[in-house]
């Protein structure tokens, strides 16, 4: 591989601008050539007047000038330049014997003198010295400017955050790691009733917690001071002793990796809590109204049919117990309560004579009895329950193998709630007296569902029903009135 020739890099030029004013062309040219090799911007002028014009245009930092020149001498030019830019540095070059001019130059405050004939290296040393001073000054000014700018940016940022802090609609407090208040905003004062003077240096939790909540509040503050964020809903008290429901957001303030303080934001949620409580109360009232209405409907049918009074209630209770054992959700269980309590509501249309008949029913009478799930369904189907109550009622005499009525549904064509009610209905009916027979007893009832497990009845439902009935977890609470 061919080696590359090493290029000579030119020495860096001094980052300065300089003007050399000299009426002797030979000197002017030779010194100019020398300066251009070492200094970034060099301007030359043959007399003071042209020198002044060039200065006005380029503002060189250093002016090197002869004194005796035609048109305008060097000292006149210096005077005028100083008026334009007082920080300009001057080096005067003159012949020996012009002592008076030197004195005048000293008066004008020039920075260096060079005698003619010019010793170039001496001149360069002087330029370098002045140049270093200028560059140093420039660096100082630059740094000062930078500092001012960053101070300004910091001030702006601080003002911005102070404004945010102060004008936040939420109550904000900054406290020390041991819980003493360092700063509060206007909303904090408004929410809790303390002025800044009253609050500063007080222990925050003692100031706004009730005695009962102090321990809990102190524990939370400790957690935040330990670097943890917290978000809670609790109560705090105002200066006048009024209790407020508040949400609290506590967050640690970390400065340069160190836990410096605790930042707390409080939001008054009293109105929201009150609205929530009212909504809850109204929901509970509504729930109770539904339950009461359902009980009334159940009572209507039971009033006509005293033999089965209490039957629907018991079926609902056993249905609930089975569903709980099967770990069904509470909402579904609530549906079973409603459906169970009304499952025989369709009997309202069965003549009392048939309901109370102790002899064998005729086929026609039996047909009328079998119509009751459909009547119940028709009565309930337009009620906008959050559960499928009408269908539960319609399907409670369906059987797992399709042998039930009214529609001969099978397996999972039958609602799970209806499969549960079917088992509860059979057990309840067999375990208690009926108009046409005495109670058969719980043992016989269990035998019936176990023998027909997976045939007439859902096997899972049977297993769970047997489970709670055999070990006495469930007992019927309502006695039939017969
Ligand atoms: Fe029934």
Number of domains: 3
CATH architecture of the largest domain: Orthogonal Bundle
- pLDDT averaged residue by residue: 89
CATH superfamily of the largest domain: Hypothetical protein af1432
Overview of the structural elements:
The chain is α/β, with parallel strands linked by helices and 482 residues long. It has three domains: 10-132, Rossmann fold; 170-268, PAS domain (Beta-Lactamase, 2-Layer Sandwich); 274-470, Hypothetical protein af1432 (Orthogonal Bundle). The chain is built from 19 helices and ten strands. Strands 2-1-3-4-5 form a five-stranded parallel beta sheet, with helices on both faces. The chain has a five-stranded antiparallel beta sheet with strand order 7-6-10-9-8, with helices on both faces. A hairpin with a 5-residue loop joins strand 6 and strand 7 (181-184). Helix 11 (311-325) packs across helix 19, helix 12 packs across helix 16 (389-395) and helix 18 (442-451) runs antiparallel to helix 19. It is rod-shaped. It starts with 13 loop residues before the first strand and ends in a 12-residue tail after the last helix. The structure holds fe (ii) ion. The site of fe (ii) ion (FE2) has 6 residues, from loops.
